[in-house]
Design goal:
Length: 118
């Protein structure tokens, strides 16, 4: 008797609370993306921002097209390596941390753009 009542209560509670939590989490992710992008912009001049942005766009697209295992870590490593090689081929050397942060921001931004459109 109590188990049925408790189970029903938990189900109703979760149905009411989970949408609110999901919305709050999406807002937090969007705020973190904005903060990360602004931080990156403060570290680089306009030309380097453009170059990094081009490298990251190419790297993220390449990681999606090679049909790697769907593990996010493997795709991020591939994209990081690709962006680093892309920049090096053009004579640029940017801190791996900045490249990694830019890749994370680009992926999160793309993910949220797809969710907003859907």
């Amino acid at each position: 008797m109590w188990q049925e009542f408790l189970s029903g209560f938990i189900e109703i509670f979760l149905k009411a609370v989970l949408p609110v939590l999901a919305t709050a989490l999406a807002s937090l992710v969007a705020a973190l993306i904005t903060k990360g992008i602004n931080w990156l912009k403060s570290k680089l001049d306009l030309q380097m921002q453009f170059i990094l942005n081009e490298a990251v766009k190419s790297a993220v697209l390449a990681a999606e097209q090679v049909h790697l295992v769907d593990a996010a870590i493997i795709k991020k490593d591939y994209a990081l390596d690709y962006a680093t090689r892309w920049l090096a081929a053009r004579g640029y050397k940017i801190d791996l941390g900045l490249i990694g942060d830019a890749i994370e921001a680009a992926v999160l931004e793309q993910f949220n753009k797809d969710r907003a459109a859907g």
